[in-house]
Amino acid sequence: MENALLPSIILTILLNLRPAESPDPACRNTCGSLAVKYPFGTGSGCGSPRFHPYVTCVHVEDHDDLVLATHTGSYPVTSISYTGSTLIISPPNMSTCTSMKPSPNLGLDWSGPFELGSSTFVLLHCEPPTASLTINDSSICDLSSSNLCASVYACPAVLNLGLPLFSPTNTCCVYSPANFDSKGELDLQALKCGGYAPVMSLGDDPTDPTGWEYGVELKYTQGALDSNHMDTKCPTCENSGGVCGYEPASLAFVCVCAGGYNTTTDCHPYNQVQGIMWSSASFPSRKDRWRNLGYSGLVWLAAACSMNQCLRRFFFQVEMNS
Ligand SMILES: *[C@@H]1O[C@H](CO)[C@@H](O)[C@H](O)[C@H]1NC(C)=O
Ligand SMILES: *[C@@H]1O[C@H](CO)[C@@H](O)[C@H](O)[C@H]1NC(C)=O
Ligand SMILES: *[C@@H]1O[C@H](CO)[C@@H](O)[C@H](O)[C@H]1NC(C)=O
Questions:
Q1: Is 182 left (phi over 0), alpha (psi -120 to 50) or beta?
Q2: Whose CA is nearest to atom 13 of ligand 1?
């Protein structure tokens, strides 16, 4: 009786010894509330290498933010459209109807994969008259949209810019650039403007700036320039529950699977017997590799040893070896 129970007791103990928690995956598919997919990544080795130095997931106080870093600052990404290849950033110093503040220049790096989307910038508190604001000798303000200026200047927050409510609109300029200047910046200093409200949509009522959608829309170029066939391999990897990444040194494609396993294709074998299966995949660390190998070996041994004798021989040998 006792002897017959022993193997199953040992099997039970071994099953409970199984590493209960997988190590944190090197690449995650969310950051805060945002779904993060190729070409974006949450850190080095994740997503596309062309996006990595610019976009990362950072831990701020009690939450995670996907952040776009450029030569002028760091800007939280508030949404991504993977089908439209656009993203929206909310510069901390931008103005809206409810919050206005002086802003430093806003810039994008020419070397990065991002360019300006279709946001309109309402430049605030500029040196009057804005009708003569020019870049390269062409005036930039859309005078036919000055009604937007009147609406914004009715927001009580203009007081924070040092302007009176309903101030004349000749200090305001509606500017819809196709691109930033040669430095890649919305150069408020050169334009002599205090702040900007980036407007993506006027909502249902164009005269009500509390209902407008604020943010800077950017377009990104797809990973077509990635030299390591990311674009063709990545969908297979993502469909198997993996996260696309790359080997930081060689930039070779890797599919990052749950539990710390990387493959060159997808995660299918690892979803089923995660932690025990191993093949050509790389393992989280040397220590984990031996733990997993040793563990699976012991499970098979215990299962095979249905008789007390077998176990006795096994433990005898362990004793001899140690
Ligand atoms: C898997 O790939 C990710 C991204 O390149 C890397 O950070 C991580 O160290 C890799 N893990 C292993 C075990 O090779
Ligand atoms: C922009 O915002 C940051 C953080 O809110 C602040 O520290 C910085 O002083 C602001 N810059 C300007 C020019 O207002
Ligand atoms: C202004 O002109 C310079 C020189 O021709 C050019 O490099 C720059 O891109 C132009 N700036 C804009 C915003 O068009």
A1: alpha
A2: 284
